[in-house]
Amino acid sequence: MTPRGRKYMFRSLALVIAAVALGGCISPIPTASGRYTAPIGGSPVISNETPYSAALRCLSRYTASKPLRIAVGQIADYTGKMESDNSGRKVTQGAALMAMSALAKAGVPLVERFDTSVAEMELKYANNKLIGSDNPSGPGGYRKIMAGSIPGSDYYLVGGITELNFNIRSEGIGGDGGGTATNAIKGTVGASMYVMNVGLDLRLVDTTTLQVVDVVSYQKQIIGRQISAGVFDFLGQTFFDASVGESALEPIQLAVRSVIERAVLEMMSRLYHTPPNACTGDLGTANDPVTDISDRRQVPGPAYVQPATTAMNEEKYYDTSRQEPYRWYGASDATADDGLRGQLQ
Question: What is the reported pLDDT for 7?
Answer without folding.
Answer: 59
